[in-house]
TrEMBL record, chain A:
Chain positions covered by the region annotation Disordered: 1-23
Family annotation (InterPro entries): RNA_pol_sigma-70-like (IPR039425), RNA_pol_sigma-70_dom (IPR014284), RNA_pol_sigma70_r2 (IPR007627), RNA_pol_sigma_r2 (IPR013325), RNA_pol_sigma_r3/r4-like (IPR013324), WH-like_DNA-bd_sf (IPR036388)
Name this protein carries in UniProt: RNA polymerase sigma factor (Sigma-70 family)
Gene Ontology molecular-function annotations: DNA binding; sigma factor activity
Residue ranges annotated for the RNA polymerase sigma-70 region domain, each copy included: 46-106
Source organism (scientific name): Kutzneria buriramensis
Keywords for the protein's UniProt record, in alphabetical order: DNA-binding, Sigma factor, Transcription, Transcription regulation
Keyword Transferase in annotation: no
Signal sequence, start to end: none
Protein's GO biological process: DNA-templated transcription initiation
Family that this chain belongs to: Belongs to the sigma-70 factor family. ECF subfamily.
Matching NCBIfam families: sigma70-ECF
Keyword set includes Transcription regulation: yes
UniProtKB/TrEMBL annotation, chain B:
Protein name in UniProt: Carboxypeptidase regulatory-like domain-containing protein
Organism of derivation: Kutzneria buriramensis
Superkingdom of origin organism: Bacteria
Length: 209, 155
């Protein structure tokens, strides 16, 4: 699809790998409603759904795994106090992302100098030996994607990591139908995404995806 | 040819963008997934935290006289007995193995001045909390209709 046609009426995209983004947003709206109705008993599905987002937000701040686990747990506890004021999934994810970052920065101050994570998070991934054909294809795509991600600034890497896990109504199918600009996910994030796209399109190894 | 200018920030989001974001998500999910028990820990912390807002019956367990022996401690209450075995790992951290009687699956939280660690006992009432730092701590067990708190122990 690289360089192929953009969105067009009557030609809904298929097999985008992200086609359930809008449904996911609606699903989270339902989970939020349940949690607000019963904060003690109704939070479980929301925690299951959004803990990965909080984890990647915390990890993107450069803290080690044990500290990040505490950060995520504390953020969920803090949410209990603010849940009554949060009415939409967008407000919820914005609150969670901000609260997780704030808690991570607080932890970073407390543990300064001893828990910064290294840049070798992908070492195992890149060293993976060849497997069945499908796995090899996936591994090759990942290797090339990481090679491109690695060329981005640290700031861009962190932003895209968080964006990729954030359920939003404005970069699901709706976005492609309405022709929303990449910058709608935030000007810097939009530039980071555009840069990554350029790197993948211009990959000398050939088409990506 | 490589385009140096990061063009296209104002272009519409399209399928390729969405596939790239999905691939970035898959990449990080494979490279750095959350710990397997993280969701359970968070769920347990919220469940037990809720007790503070609308407490059920709260009881303090009593330490059984003479029960402290080579890292073994037992706490009794009217509804539940908590037996703990505390040991030190090679790396100096502390491991706690516990058993609830009568057996049952309940949320269990260990609280220290700077840590709150949650887990859930299995159907046999057994639970383990590992990687603890030395220092004072107490357990909170959320049983069916009562929240049990142990007196402080020193790990």
């Amino acid at each position: 699809m690289v360089g192929g046609p953009r969105h067009g009426p009557g030609t809904p995209p298929t097999d985008m790998g992200d086609g359930d983004t809008d449904n996911r947003y609606e699903q989270i709206a339902g989970l939020l409603e349940a949690a607000r109705a019963d904060p003690r008993g109704g939070m479980d599905p929301l925690i299951t759904e959004l803990t990965p987002l909080l984890w990647h937000v915390a990890r993107a701040q450069g803290l080690d795994a044990a500290v990040c686990a505490d950060v995520v747990q504390t953020t969920w506890l803090n949410l209990l106090r603010s849940l009554a004021d949060i009415h939409t999934p967008a407000a919820l994810t914005a609150w969670l992302v901000t609260a997780t970052k704030r808690e991570a920065w607080r932890a970073k101050d407390a543990y300064r100098g001893e828990t910064l994570t290294g840049d070798d998070a992908f070492a195992d991934l890149l060293d993976a030996g060849p497997g069945p054909v499908e796995q090899a294809l996936v591994a090759d795509q990942r290797r090339r994607l990481w090679k491109a991600v690695d060329q981005l600034s640290t700031r861009c890497q962190q932003l895209l990591r968080v964006v990729a896990f954030t359920p939003r109504p404005d970069y699901g199918l709706v976005a492609t139908r309405l022709g929303m600009p990449r910058g709608s996910i935030g000007p810097t994030r939009g530039r980071c995404l555009a840069k990554l796209r350029e790197l993948l399109i211009s990959d000398p190894e050939g088409e990506w995806g | 040819m490589t385009t140096l200018r990061p063009a296209g920030a104002d272009d519409p989001i399209d399928e390729l963008d969405l596939r790239i974001l999905a691939a970035v998500r898959d990449l990080w999910t494979a490279a750095d997934p959350p710990p397997a028990d993280l969701v359970d820990r968070c769920r347990c912390a919220v469940a037990l935290s809720g007790l503070r807002f609308a407490p059920k019956s709260v009881a303090v367990c009593r330490q059984r006289t003479g029960s402290e022996d080579v890292g073994r401690i037992t706490f009794d209450s009217d509804s539940l007995t908590i037996s703990l075995s505390v040991g030190v790992n090679r790396d100096g951290t502390v491991r706690m193995d516990g058993r609830l009687s009568p057996p049952g699956s309940h949320d269990v939280e260990l609280r220290t001045p700077d840590q709150r660690l949650c887990t859930r006992s299995d159907v046999h009432g057994r639970f383990t909390i590992n990687g603890l730092r030395h220092g004072p701590a107490h357990l909170v067990v959320s049983a069916t209709d009562v929240s049990l708190t142990t007196p402080s122990i020193t790990l």
